[in-house]
Fold:
Amino acid sequence: MIAWLLLVSLFCSSAQDGYLKDPGVFPCGPQNITVSTSDQVILLTWEDDPSCMSLRDALTYELEALIADEPTHYEEVAVRSDEMGSRHSWSWSPHLALECAPITLKLRSRSQGRTSPWQLERIVPGNDHSFLPEVYPRDKVFQVGSKATFCCVLPTGQVWKTLNVSGDSSTNWVIRKIGNHTYSLTVDLIKGSVESGANVICETDQEHNGACAYIGYPPADHDLTCETRDFQSVECLWTVGRNTHLALKSPTTYQLLGSTCAEESDGRCSHKVRVDIGERNWTLTARNQLGTVNLTDRADLMRRVHMFAPQEVKVSSVNASSVRLDWNWAIQMYDDLSIRCQLKISDSQTSAVRDCVGVALRFTVLDNLIPNWRYNVTMRCGTAQHFWKWSEWSSSVEFLTMGDVPDALDVWMQGNDSQTIIAWKVPLANQSHGDIIDYEVTWKPTSERRKKSRVLHPKRSLALSLDATREHVVSVTARNKYGNSSPSTITIPVLNTGSGRVKSSKTQGSNGGFNLSWSASPIASCGYIVDWCPSRGLCTIDWLRVPPSETNVGIFSENFREGVRYLLSIYGCTPGAPVLLERREGYVKEKIIQDGLFRTLNWKQRDMDVEVSWDPVALQEQSAFIQGYILYYWENNSSVMNISTDNPRDTSLTARNLQINSYTFTVKANTTVGQCGATSITVTLNSLTDNLIKAVGITIATIFVLLCLIVILCYRNWECIKLKVYPPIPMPVLKDKWMTSLAKQSCRPVFVEMSHHTEAELMAIPELHCKSEAPPGLDCAEQGNGCFNEPVENLTTRRAAAPCQLPLLPPPPPPLSSSLPKDGRLNPAYNLTSTDSLVEGSNGYQPQKQKGQLEEAPDTPLPCVLTYILLPQLPSE
Structure:
């Protein structure tokens, strides 16, 4: 026994001596080391040496990785005392693919400064003897913001040229040679690649090849919300985060309450579960190769009921202004809920939403609808108590309401010369409530019997000739097959009342219309009416009604045209006739007036001045406001001069102090959009002498033409002129009494021989010279038959004292030739040389010479002359 103890002590002492002799050797080290690789991950496992069981201090394993014999990674693994004797493991993902270069793993233990010897494990890439350059890693997923290293392994005999990454997802490229046939590329990944990945291309002097890299993000889903629709399942919704760019390589997968959701979940997942009253957690997990996200929502789903849309929506009854709407529910438990529904009622023009609430709600009535109008209705519902959200919209239902009488018309008036035009707006489809047949217009002066007229649709106006001095009341109604509308009444004021005192002011359009504002008027108790119409040409008036509280309005019409002047009138609406308040004139948009605006340019030379004139420009030819005119003039190849006027009413301009030469004159209108409407003429100025000669020649020619006209007129109307100036003398008719009185006088007719004269010359009537037997001193005017009965010797004195006036002659006799014999003598028994007394004969009378009568010489003036008296033959009894 003692000997055995001695042997043991000697063994221990020898062991201690050996340990002290080699203090760096630590017997407790790794054993049974194994190395495996999977998906670019190295897994190293080992066991503790049995000697490690006696250690009371902590044990640490040191691990070092070398790539291509260059230290790359160092890590330590601590083993607690209770883990002694178990198998240990370590995993590592090198930044370089395992196929790129050999990797050496070194493992040893350490405790209290003592270390075991390094144990080496080597991983050598295989050689596939490819004839193409190979790029590694292939189809690997990288996270944006990390570094990535790629390598290119060249075939034997090929020379490397380039190694790069396509696209713009990487930056900071660093290329290294890590072996005789291997090159590496390290880059910073700053952006996600396309879904198909980024290409890493390696090119040699002979071939090129590459691999695909997927660059993206881990899941970033958030805002999980859970609800129920049928009380038998839970449905969760969440917001899908940013695009991971890994839909092809590593799509995100979801699990709700541990159950996998459908692959194309798109932010929605449901799970069968019984829904009870009370709160609980609802958990969703989102995962891809780069990371995992857990989302949780805590809720009582009985307060989160998302209803299904109503089904089988239909119209059960239709009236002119109301309908009944019925529907059903897909879930029977909805009958126990208090439900609130929204109905969207739309037509071709508008859309409106109405609400209805009720328990087990299955129908509703829609009222205040437009007659004869087509509607489209759809609806959605939700819980009235603990409202969560609306259901989807139901399928739509369409219906047409019954027809009715038209709405009242919008009526207005327009004064047009001697007529008043009554106009109304044609009812829209939602106002006519059926096809309009015609319109009835009635009018009457105040307190008189009315008159009426019918106007067929679609005419929208009627011209009336009304008494301008009286007010009239006009009513218009529309008729369809359902009846007549309510009458629309307007009072027509006394013609032009107030219009003469309202002046027009200019206004400028904007944005295709007019923005008008005016001062409020106390008389406008029912608002304002603004009407507009082109200032010239055919006018189809249009108007707009404005409430009393507003004094500005924007007027827009599809009939507005640029370059047309419009007249806008603002009326105050009163209980009686409307009152004109203001008038404006303006353009929606002014346009440049085309050249040739002045159709006729006239010019007149005064001395060395030239006046150029034109006709006033018609309004329909003014596409902009004319602010004045400019006259440009110049000689041939000389500088241009101009004069202007700022008065748009002027129709002439004068260029002064010109030279005798040819000038070109151009007139332009000055407008707010520039000078436009240019019209030109060319004139040649004459000298003052030429003008004088020309004036004299024109005067002489004018006088000659006038004289010729006078001669021609006198020649053509000579007979009429002769009758007016030199009328024929009528032949006196002698009666017995006249002859008796004549016989008492000593008369001596003087005849001229007519035998040798023509019939026309016989018109020279002989004069009858006679002496009166009246007492001396009797005035000539007191003697009968118009003869002077005074002595011859007193004739000269009497003539000097008072001329003798002959009495009026009787009407002219028939032509003398009718009473003369064929031989041309007045009377064959009448002898000019006879001195016998006047005796009666069958053919007339003969003169008788009185005793004591002096013979008068032919040149002696006769005391009394009766001119143009021819004594006709007395008819035989």
Notes: The helical segments are 2-21, 429-432, 688-716, 718-725, 736-743, 795-801. The radius of gyration is 67 Å. The longest helix spans residues 688-716.
